Amino acid sequence: MELALWGGNFNPPGNHHIEIARALARVAERVVIVPAGPRAEKREQNAIASTFRAALVDLAFRDIDRVELDFSDLENQVFTSNDELARRYSDADVWHVVPREFVDGGATEESMIQQYWEQSGDLWKSAKFLIVHPKNHPPSVADLPPNYRLLEVNAEGRSQDIRVALVRGENVSHQIDPAVLNFIETRGLYRLSSPAHSRTISLQGKSGHVYFDKRNVAASDWAQRFNSVSIDRADYVIALGGDGTMLQAIGKFWERRIPFFGVNFGHVGFLLNDREDVSSSSFPSEDVIVRDLPMLRVESLLTDGSTSVGLAFNDAWLERSTGQTAWLEVKVDDQVRFKKLVCDGVLTCTAAGSTAYASSMGATPMLADTEAWMLVGSNVMTPRNWKSAPISMNSSITVRNLDPDKRPVRGFIGGTSLGDVLEMRIRPSRTAFVELAFLPEHDMSRKIADVLFPNT
């Protein structure tokens, strides 16, 4: 079997989901799991943010061989039907993974597949189904679709029951993987109160993976102080260097869904703790403040007709490729805000990234946990005096080159060049974020003030 395609809510993923995924991986060459996007009739899917849902799915399934995660529904806030998913993976031999109850009633055309799936009649007859059932409880032979295989898995459970137990404050440790449960508990997910995007944790007794700039002598010396474990075993990442080192660490390890604790061996170090503060306190610290900070999702259309999708923690921008100014159309939420922005380029950045390239372009930095991101112009000629604008976290920005033949522009994601681009569409990601850890005495506002009010 080439591809087992498994769509579902996984809200939250339980141990029963993990056992099913392992069983699927034993019979299929590839297992693609698709967490479902929002549906009007499934209000519980909107109970927690898509970023948190993606993280929970990541934590549950990431270490299972041959399992791939497709977050396109969560990222785009849509629901993709199974017939559409089948077309997305039409180059493979697709088997739709369904639980037994989805085929119950098939003999009288009353199964959930026949009643509710789009194109259900065609799918029931033509699609291939891998039907998961509990031990000793296979479906009735009369209810089975024409093309099927049965997979017995000794695992039972329902996400709905787990959610109810969490709301009631009951113990669900026997139903959820420890890493998934820790993520839920530290953020207060599935509780009656609002989920937390910052929290205080302890690093004592936990293991860290050290990432440092080997060209930095002081950072290399400090690296010897820590007992570094492999990233697969780490509870957090220790980044030693400047903000650039932290960005490199984030790029390599953010998908581990663990906190990043930085120690500054560079200059200002907005994303890092001061070396002196770390030296004067016991480390690993008992009190560390962790903030969930967004990443930007960047879709780019290149001049050769190809597309690129990437993530940036700090910034993404376009800049002129030649000596001539760029002519750019800028839309916010598909509404044209600049019909023709004449400039050297345009930059978008997160609040955390506003202290970097955006600041050097004249934008006023924001605190990292500000609920906004930013659009910044570089050497803007028209309209005169325009520099920057804060943008809602729910908004998207589209920048299009108005004259690509005469005035080409290059695209960059986090400092990495994409080459010449025709258009970039940027928005905060709905599935990717970074956990940055700071000592309680860390004061980013003071660091920003030092930049804005330099000593004279």
| CATH architecture type of the largest domain | 3-Layer(aba) Sandwich
The number of helical elements comes to 13
Helicity range: 10-25%
The largest sheet, given as strand count, sense and whether it forms a barrel, is:
15 strands, mixed
How many structural domains?
A: 3
Query: Beta-sheet strand percentage?
Result: 25-35%
Output the CATH class name of the largest domain. Answer: Alpha Beta
Provide the low-confidence segments as ranges.
Answer: none
Overall 3D geometry? Answer: globular
Mean pLDDT: 91
Terminus-to-terminus distance: 71 Å
Radius of gyration in whole Å, from Cα?
25 Å
CATH topology of the largest domain: Rossmann fold
CATH superfamily of the largest domain: HUPs
Tell me the structural class. alpha/beta
What is the number of beta strands?
A: 21
